[in-house]
Amino acid sequence: MIAKRSNPAVNRRGLTFWGQWLCAISLVSGLLCYLVFQQFGTVSAQYRLLIVITIFGSVPAYMLLHVYHKKHSYFAGLGHLLAGWGALLSGLLLIAYASESMYLFSLEVLARWALLGFVIQAIAYIPLRYFGNRHSRKLRTERMSVIIGSGPTAYNLAERLHQSNRVPMVGLITSKPGVRTLDGRFPVLGDLSKVRELVDQYGVRRVYIALSLDEVAVIEDIYTTLLDLSVDVVWIPDFGRMPLLNQSISQIEHLPAIYLNETPLSSHPAAVFSKELMDRGVALLAIILLSPLLAGAALAVKLSSPGPVFFRQPRHGWNGEVIHVMKFRSMRLHDDDTVVKQATRDDPRVTPVGRVLRSTSIDELPQLFNVLKGEMSLVGPRPHAVTHNDYYSDKILAYMARHRIKPGITGLAQVTGHRGETETIEKMQQRVEQDLAYINNWSLWLDIKILFKTPFTLFSRDVY
């Protein structure tokens, strides 16, 4: 079970973007200078400042709207160019309005610049796109690649290279003679004894080593052999079914280091500070706004059956520390310390008021106070009872890795249909996989999306 993690390299901008951006921004800057000089005979300081702001503001505007993306058709590319130019102009207008500096500029000059600026960029886009595509095709022909390996990792890599169509792959070289691929789609060119001949025969310029861990001893010999050839060598480690968490590659004093298991708190401390700030701020605001609902629910619980209003249950928090999670009591008093028993449909322990609270998730709202205390987060893996953790920890791989970050009131598992009772090991494993995927792909934007999706999952039939 390996939780999926998005590839940050997918969104990186290369020379194709920067080359076209540089050409376009030079054209619009030159156009503005020409229009101003034609109107006033000189380019005054405010217009020079406008050019500087345009240059810096165009970068985020064009990046966010995916201007000059390689996969766009000509018409789609022009549409994104128009959107990026419009966003840039809107930002400039907002800055001018906020600084009360509109009177410094000629509206006639700015209007002509806005219109002609897009026209001149659109005209330049066609040849720039043509030469960009031509350059990409040339690079592809110079990046002919081959994969050493024939196991699942090698096959997975071959599929990804084939789907992305960025690096042409001629086939696989096996470490053992007579090995075939899974479905025959990717040809086996030969074994390691013929690696030199195969590199020369197919004009290979990049070699991917994707061998299993039990074959790692031969990697040094392979690398030594390839070192004499004019090829780039890329090692794709095969970690099998190891559950990698927030994995990354770095250097420690010039030594290569692969981080197999790292918590977001240690790899993104600044971002986690922002998460903490958002959690406590939103929790405080929610408590204030929902105070009538909280008071009404508390009164209903008190009148429904004997016992306290709140139910405090020990659960594992961040780094496995035990915290006491608060909920409105929805069941009659019972001992849940030694028996692993989740709530089931028509559970006799649940009171009539508690059934309403559970079905609408109102019983979870007191956990806002746990968030305010810093014990929980708004979004994260749901905290399970300590007895549940003891039960599942030796039955599901990496189960306790869920506690590498703070537990949440809601989470990725809850908005992807993995709420309610987990009466089978398989269902709990699916929930754990979603939790690990959240850890691997965590970001503030992901938290925001989960928070927006949560209200639409509150009335799930699987919650009782």
Automatic annotation (TrEMBL):
It is a multi-pass membrane protein. It is found in: Membrane. The chain crosses the membrane at residues 21-41, 47-65, 77-98, 110-131, 282-301. GO terms for cellular component: membrane. The keyword Membrane applies. NCBIfam families: EPS_sugtrans, WcaJ_sugtrans. GO terms for molecular function: undecaprenyl-phosphate glucose phosphotransferase activity. Keywords: Membrane, Transferase, Transmembrane, Transmembrane helix. Its EC number is 2.7.8.31. Pfam families: Bac_transf (PF02397), CoA_binding_3 (PF13727). Residues 275-459 form the Bacterial sugar transferase domain. Its main location: membrane. This is Undecaprenyl-phosphate glucose phosphotransferase. The keyword Transit peptide does not apply. Belongs to the bacterial sugar transferase family.
